[in-house]
Amino acid sequence: MAYRVVGRSVARNDVIDKVTGRAKYAPDVVIPHMLHGKILFSPYASARIINIDTSLAKSLLGVRAVITGKDVPYTYGSVIKDRPIFAQDVVRYQGEPIVGIVADSEVIAEEALNLIKIEYEEKEPILDPFEAMKADSSLLHADLGSYQHNKITYPEAETNICSHYKLRKGNVDDAFEKSDYIFEGEFSSQMIQHAFIEPIVAVADADNVTKRITIWSTACNPFVIRKELSSAFNIPMGKIRMIVNNVGGSFGGKAYSKIEPHVAALSLACSAPVRLALTREEVFNLIVRGPGHFKIKTGLMKDGTIVARKIETVWDTGAYAECGPVIARNSGHTAAGPYRIPNVKIDAYCVYTNKNIAGAFRGYGVQEATWAVESHMDDIAREMDIDPYDLRKKNILHYGDEGATGQIVEGTGLEQCLDAAWEAVNRKEIKRKSGSKLMGRGMACVHKATLAPSVSSAIIKLSEDGTATLLTSTTEQGQGATTVMAQIIAEELGLPYEEIYVSGTDTDYTPYDTTTTASRSTFSMGNAVLLAARDIKEQLMIIAAEYIGVDKDELTFEFGKIKVSSQPEKSYTIKEIVSKYYGLNGTLIGRGLYRPDSVPEDSETGQSTKITPFWMYGTQAAEVEIDIETGEINVLKLVAAHDMGSAINPMNCRQQLEGAALQGIGNTLYEEIKLNDKGITVNPNFHDYKIPTAMDSVEIESILIESQQKDGPYGAKGVGEPALAPTGPAIRNAILDALNIGLNHLPLTQEKILAAIEENKEKLEGC
Amino acid sequence: MLKTFEYLQPKTLEEALSMMKSCKGSFRLIAGGTDVIVQIRSGKTPPDYLISLKALNKELGILEEKEEGLDIGALVTHRILEKSPTIQKEYAALYDGVSQVGSVQVRNVGTIGGNVCSSLPSADSAAPLLILGAKLNIVGDREESICIEEFFTGPGENILKNNQILKSIFIPKLPKNSNSAYEKLGRRKAMEIPVVGAASYIQVDKKTGICLDARIALASSAPTPIRCYKAEQTLVGQSAEKEIFVKAGKLAAQEANPRTSFRATEEYRRSVIPVLVERSLSRSLNRIKK
Amino acid sequence: MKKSISLTINGTKVDAEVDQNITLLSFIRDEMGLMGTKEGCGTGDCGACTVIIDGLAVKSCIYLAVEADGKEITTIEGLSIDGELHPIQQAFVEEGAVQCGFCIPGTILSAKALLDENEDPTEEEIKKGIAGNLCRCTGYVRIIKAIKKSAKVLQKAK
Ligand SMILES: Cc1cc2nc3c(=O)[nH]c(=O)nc-3n(C[C@H](O)[C@H](O)[C@H](O)COP(=O)(O)OP(=O)(O)OC[C@H]3O[C@@H](n4cnc5c(N)ncnc54)[C@H](O)[C@@H]3O)c2cc1C
Ligand code: FES
Ligand code: FES
Questions:
Q1: DSSP assignment of B249-271
Q2: I need a surface site. Which of A39, A54, A117, A239 has the fewest CB within 10 A?
């Protein structure tokens, strides 16, 4: 069926505000008589607090409140409730909040910070997750066994393992016995940062008598945060109001509570509006993507059929769980790769260390797991002398196959992505050598699940002039969600796209949405919006029947027009019906609630017939050139073929693929947060933490595969996260192709590449 | 908001010098401020006074081509140098260096004087100035001219006294059949501090192809930007071609004293110095040929 | 201690008393209420705070407000006149160059400064011209296209 708005690259509905500078972000929120907060962060990664003396700070002119852990002895955390708002005696990472200050200005707040005296007893930090896992390691959280946690977290009390996720399918030991070949590999991914350009900022206006709290923030999941605050402060949810307008990039880094508990505490302490804005350095210390370690073992038959795969992953989650256990688990869904493997065993350990707190980064561990498994695939192909494409083609999940989690594959998108990407990168002959440069090509596939269970709800208000406003709590972070939602409404109701307005999130007024994460919005919120539009349509038909004076069954709805079967020459516009019905003013309200199907996993085997409402697929291929004298690497071309079900807005989809590709290149080649041996970050700024500039941008070919997700709105599903995952291993495999050298530990810096070249001179001979 | 300081803006060089002398409390000179403001912001205790050189454009902002060479006022920005046809043509290594400082916005404001006076081992103008034989014109109690080789004393340190200002930089005109180049290796392609920078200057006999004169300098390869005299000497009297350039590169690496930082290890810097030196020399030679 | 400065912002003359230790960025946002200029790092590394001073793109977070005395400043708010988008803004809209948008005002101003002095830049010159404006969302692909396109439009309009 041909659509009129869906499938078209209409301009985003937020774009005019963004090019004129009118778009409001949390850092732009100004409230009259707003005060300014500052936090004193721990300079040590591990310490005991002996004494805090705030008396001098309190007496400084212009200081309104000084609070410590004693004043707000609450903990929060929606995955594991393990985190104090301000440290209670123990410091577990460098950057842990110790004291909060409110003052008339930021300068006074900062001066006051310098007047605080804290006596610490510094301790040796635990920085190695493998050490932390040992039975005799000292414990970061002695009370882990008694902490509240969600259902998909599996803590091991009296250890530093805050979750141990298991996936068991078939019998890997038997299958390894019978395998013709067994290959093993070890891989690791480094600590990186999201590096969204908008820093983390929140403004709270709270009242200490009524306990009413309003927060404007850069948060992506306002309802998650509302719940965490409600539980931490023991205040009913309805009293907490979270407002989020445009978010200046998140990539998962702004997903869970960041400084909202702190700004709420500060505002409550002085019953006045308080702004808390983190510096870039503070942002770097607050949230990172943690390091991951992977051991993979694969059994194959002579013909290249994979029969067994065993994976052990260790996730270094830092001092508090944040969403580390979810990362360990969700990456487990992906870790075996998008292949048909009858016997799979996965153990994923999420481990506390005295490091920066690890959060989700565009894919909840899927990027890292894909790095390991797809690198391993090329190593196997090389060892077995099979073309890496053929090895994948042979084993890839097809329609009707059962994946590692026990779910049957429904679409055919993956194979289409594989073929399209490989074809595109091979279109031209490759020159394998030129001067000191060697060239190569590589590829990698990804599959990813979304979040389940989850709920999305939407409200559409149809005004008497026939324009519509959508109330939704899906936060706009740059992904283009508000545009896609408007397109869905415009299509379903036959209204002009330009006349659909989409709200920002305000938990007082916009209805519930679980999160804006996991690439779930187009599918889940899209479905809710579709239902709300249909609800409007249903009501329109009822009032139209009444207004026209015919039976409802006689009416049909055709792209914005209501037609009567007995009067084929006549049609009525929505505006006509609504304005006639209401007279001068009034609004029709449509409601939509969507709760996709899913089946909870078995906690011992991870098996479920429907772990996720849909799977996302993609393949990327890279062509690289390496200067063997300096180790410099250039990505000459990157092809990204991804299955998005259907592209409601093709331009938006391409934006996701292009943006992810360059992010992936930075993540792979040079980005790394470095800690010294005391656990202190040495490069917490954009000067020393490098992300790609325009000069580093590369040619990207995006290919949209549309396999039609059967229960997706207009056949659509998600695309944002999986777009990042295959970039790294595709580049790595291209290096393998060029140099015959496999690099297993991220990032692949020019220095590492040169060292590998010097170590493996003989391997280069044939290149 | 930055921590408090008082901002002073002298109108003449003389006024600036006397302000520096009579200043009660700590002070720092500020030119473009691209280093100074970042440092103040990053929490280091600010000075009591910032003495701005911005109003001294008349005295410190000249860019003048003379018979014997080029006079560059300390206040001339990287951007002005980058766009100067003279620099592009005659002093190519300096063009290579200043056109790669930070980004356009930084080059629009950051000055060559500030770059030299910050005296970082990684300064992108330093190695080019070293091989171009630059002289620094310093004013204080008196005016003096020194070779740039004598200027740097350590990372972020130089011979300037508390009452001295760098007024201008003089670069002698290059002889016939000579040219220069600067190679910068970073982790990304822009907005980057060099992991290693290598500048070179050579003069050849057009007929024989013999190298008559050579200078090599390195950035981010020692506690200060350095000249590599031994490497230079191997070149003189030899036929200017890749083989000898490679040899010079290796010698330069021996003269260097790089350190390990989170940006790169000592070993890596040592292994790429020869490559960059060779490439820089080859570029200089190619430029002569053109 | 305060100092008086007088400058022009987006064509309007402004006289102000400013603290000596505030940056131009903080003057523009906090005192002038022009929130389109963004702060991403405060250390000169991201370019979100880019404004044009006397025709040159500058990072306003590492520029003192007192030094803006006598200068002519353009912020993103000064680009669209009489309800019409500037051709660069228009091209950003058409080419899909915008995602989260946080880097966009700064990038557009860098593009404007570039096109003002080089009306027909090569792709390499465009990349160099905006290398100081970090964008984490777009991969720059469409930003570069948009600048190319607006160069054509601006040339035609001449
Ligand atoms: C984002 C960013 C990227 C950068 N990238 C690079 C890069 O790639 N390569 C590079 O080399 N540098 C880089 N820099 C550093 C800086 O921009 C340069 O060093 C610049 O040239 C400094 O000049 P300025 O006029 O801004 O110096 P200022 O900050 O004003 O001063 C620097 C120092 O020199 C002193 N000083 C200045 N002028 C004089 C004078 N005439 N006499 C005596 N003392 C003086 C000051 O007291 C101060 O100590 C970068 C900076 C930033 C913020
Ligand atoms: S805020 Fe000025 S460069 Fe980042
Ligand atoms: S659009 Fe988000 S940082 Fe550029």
A1: HHHHHHH------SS--HHHHHH
A2: A117
